[in-house]
């Protein structure tokens, strides 16, 4: 909560707290509006302090509210639909213009403002803990709350969802531009409407100061029944949807194939990859449905099946997600495994569905897909979208800097220290240094030695791997910060939380056009991974015309014949020496081929056609 300095026309665009009730009444009669995100507006609230024991409220004019000073905090924490005041108004002169305020009045105002700011900061912190998608006892308060566009970090620390505000009844006829996160549930279709919307289910009942105890009790009982009924409704209908899904048998002799691609906002890199695959399939004449969640809705098996039944795809394309049990035996399922997911941890029959085609990124992932029963597994590096990542049309004068885009893994490091102690971590770092940067006979030996070390460590593989990634990124970046002949810039989560990297932190850059613009304007980009080289960062850097600086740790399945198109290094010291000579690399012709979404999509279609032909012969 930031209370700004007084400026002329103070009564505009803010909710206000008055020390004078009459002045508050005059102001509220102006019927001003306060703007919010997504073109939403909320009628201005005018609060005033009273000496009584109870709040002074008028349901005919709910935007004028008297609050007892002793109940100020309680009022705003109990009734979270009321927006917090943005500023305090001491006098009529101060409301109209700052030019006529005396020094004494200005001093009094600043003192009141500072005290209020401390109180409001505390209230805001308390309110955040109580803001969820909610059911409201009063529809007009649901509208108030929805217009404020509150964002929630309920499933992911960096991905925000809009609070969904539910009310019983019909939308008001006199209101325009209703916010998308406001849902009115018709009394005769409460559960059906909630489920069909697919929005997050209300977790909390939001009351108003106008409610009787009986209304609040009824609201709490209704909230519980709605949650139970919505879950039961989805579960019962899920069985029916699976039965319908199994009845779909695509005809591959049709002129146009259809592909369903489910995606999620919670996996940023995969979301961009799936969007790029969707464009690639479309460019090859395939009809695409890209199914995703939103700021308001989730995406689970129920939502997937409803889309599947409506769209009737010939094949599904997914990353890291197995949908075999939901599909009929004639629908193809294409999975691009990029991480060690639960189905890959089981040996045997888990992945043996006849029309499931597996692609794997990373040698350990490849081996696990095979061990879990995947047949005819193909290796596939990550890709870069050439429609987004391309060099500038007119050659630019690039900034002579080295950029790294990616998280620091600091949270994984801190978790590891907490679990095993700093001494154990220091010993592991010594071993990592020898394994990563020690001399080897063949390029692929390094990765094999790292895998063997992790397997015999006695530490959960995923946990230790994330610590290794932390060490890889930080050891190289630390060396560059100290000794590189040109500056370093860091983009991504966590670099600002480490004292030695914070001065070089430049913020978070979005995947896609924003990232491409960064790479088009710099000389060097880092691609760092301990187990592989075929990372999308390498391709994004190269396709934008910057020089990729690549820790050369290829695994046994990766193509490596584009080595002349990157600066390949094997130790931090080696990289610093290379940079001093201002290296020149070949044009990224092979990188364009290996990392192409369109060529990958074409291989998928060709593989399906060949399998269909083989099955008919």
Can you summarize this structure?
This protein is of the alpha/beta class and 617 residues long. Helix content is 40%, strand content 15%.
Describe the structure.
With 617 residues, the protein is α/β, with parallel strands linked by helices. The protein has four domains: 16-128, no CATH class; 134-239, no CATH class; 258-379, Rossmann fold; 399-595, Rossmann fold. Helices cover 40% and strands 15% of the residues. The protein is built from 19 helices and 23 strands. It has a six-stranded parallel beta sheet, with helices on both faces. Strands 20-19-21-22-23 form a five-stranded parallel beta sheet, sandwiched between helices. It has a four-stranded parallel beta sheet with strand order 5-4-1-6, sandwiched between helices. Helix 8 packs across helix 19 (597-616). It is globular and about 85 Å long.
Defining traits:
617 residues, Rossmann fold, 6-stranded parallel β-sheet, 5-stranded parallel β-sheet, disordered N terminus
Briefly note the CATH topology name of the largest domain.
Answer: Rossmann fold
Q: What is the domain tally? A: 4
Q: What's the shape? A: globular
Tell how many strands the DSSP assignment holds: 23
Radius of gyration: 30 Å
Reported for the largest beta sheet, the result is: 6 strands, parallel
Oligomer designation? single chain
Helix content: 25-40%
CATH architectural arrangement of the largest domain: 3-Layer(aba) Sandwich
The overall pLDDT average reads 88
Q: What is the percentage of strand-forming residues? A: 15-25%
Q: Which segments are poorly predicted (pLDDT under 50) over 5 or more consecutive residues?
A: 1-9
Broad CATH class of the largest domain:
Alpha Beta
- CA-CA gap between termini: 71 Å
Instruction: Briefly note the structural class of the backbone.
Output: alpha/beta
Number of helices in the DSSP assignment:
19
Strand order of the largest sheet: 14-13-15-16-17-18
